[in-house]
Amino acid sequence: MKLKNKIELRNISFKYQEGNTHIIKSLNLNIQKGDKIGLVGESGTGKSTLINIIMGLLKQTGGKIYLDNKELLTDKNQVIANIGYVPQEVFLFEGELKKNIALGLDTEKISEEKLNRASSAAQIIKFVKDLDKGFDSLVEENGRNFSVGQKQRIGVARALYKDPDILILDESTSSLDLETEEKFIEDVFNISENKTLIFISHKMSALNKCDKIFDLKQKVFIK
User: Fold this and answer.
1) Which of 63, 68, 59 is nearest to 31 (CA)?
2) Domain boundaries of the chain, sorted by first residue
3) CA nearest 7: which of 114, 94, 80?
4) Which helix (H) or strand (E) holds 120?
5) 139: Cβ–Cβ under 8 A, 6 or more apart, which residues?
6) How many angstroms separate the CA atoms of 138 and 136, rounded?
7) How far apart are CA 80 and CA 86, in angstroms?
8) Cα separation of 174 and 201, whole Å?
């Protein structure tokens, strides 16, 4: 199911069964199609928990989520299929680079056109072409033969391979140096021009290019 207008979170709460403390409590948030929204908050304010709820990986313990004014009930796979997610640390497995980008697909099902499109958008196409075997080059265990910045961009290419409506970056620049971070953020905003972007960070400086910034502790927009 594609996002046509907005995702609406109404009175969302979450706590683990064995705990009494809410990680998220009575949160309301509207995300419009095309928004470039930053989520900011200190550790423990529920940034990653909220994203896991949006992606359907966690079930909220209170409240409802609406996609284009229709309540999302049980099958959230229809939503996650249209989400590209880049975590704080991109895990690369041992094997061909193209299999790392087209995550979960057998070689014969991997589209060269999609590989090139996603890699161009993620600004790794030149670096890939400089490799001896291009997309067939081998990735060593946990991508140890690539720099942190290269791994993050491979993660972006992986997220873009399926051409999602929504791109989520979860503290994706926290391990980058300042110069690499600034270039990475600029490129991500360029490639997400026609997408909805949700950018999570504990650093306000990383969210400067966002149209809106939502403070999870205060539960209000501060930009």
Assistant:
1) 68
2) 6-221
3) 80
4) helix 112-121
5) 92, 93, 94, 95, 96, 97, 100, 145, 146
6) 6
7) 13
8) 8
- 106 backbone dihedrals φ, ψ, rounded to 5°: -70, 155
Q: Within its chain, how far is the Cα of 213 from the centroid? A: 16
**pLDDT, tens only, 159-204:** 999 889 999 999 888 888 888 888 888 888 988 888 999 999 888 8
Amino acid at site 143 = G
pLDDT (tens digit per residue) in 95-110: 999 999 998 788 899 9
Cα Dmax for the chain: 55
The residue behind tokens 């996603």 is 118
Q: Are 92 and 154 in contact (CB under 8 A)?
A: yes
Dihedral sign, Cα of residue 195, residue 198, residue 204, residue 205: negative
To which H or E segment does residue 198 belong?
strand 196-201
* Torsion from C-alpha of 161, 172, 183, 118, nearest 10 degrees: 0
Give me the CATH topology for the region 6-221. Answer: Rossmann fold (3.40.50)
Do 118 and 161 meet the contact criterion of CB atoms below 8 Å apart? Answer: yes
* Global confidence as pTM: 0.88
